[in-house]
Write a structure and sequence with these properties.
This protein is of the alpha+beta class and about 110 residues long. The protein has two helices and four strands; from the N terminus they run ββααββ. The chain has a four-stranded mixed beta sheet with strand order 1-3-4-2.
Length: about 110
């Protein structure tokens, strides 16, 4: 297969799940930067996207996803299904981003 497939669904079209390997997860904790907060407060006056926060969250999601995939690879999984993302505030300026799913082994349908 080469790389680990990922999906938010409970199956992978064209494949049968032959083994559930287990729960896999990845997370990261990020804090805001005071300079970003000042710029964001100005942005709230005129409206629109706060690009620095968008970048911060995009980077956090990618890091958490990479860590989950490393976990799945270590278990020998072909895919991670039923992927979910969650966030939680840890303190006023810090949040955790968690991604988790079910690592599985696959076989092409009909084989």
């Amino acid at each position: 297969m080469g790389r680990i497939l990922t999906t938010t669904t409970e199956n992978v079209p064209g494949f049968d799940i032959v083994q559930v390997v287990g729960l896999v997860r990845g997370n990261t904790v990020r804090t805001r930067h005071v300079g970003r907060d000042i710029m964001a407060s100005f942005k709230t006056l005129v409206g629109g996207e706060i690009e620095s926060y968008t970048t911060l969250m995009t980077d956090a999601r990618e890091q958490a996803l990479d860590r989950m995939l490393e976990d799945a690879e270590a278990l020998g999984a072909d895919a991670v299904i039923a992927i979910r993302f969650e966030t939680s505030d840890l303190m006023a300026a810090a949040a955790e981003l968690l991604v988790y799913g079910t690592a599985v082994k696959l076989r092409p349908k009909g084989k």
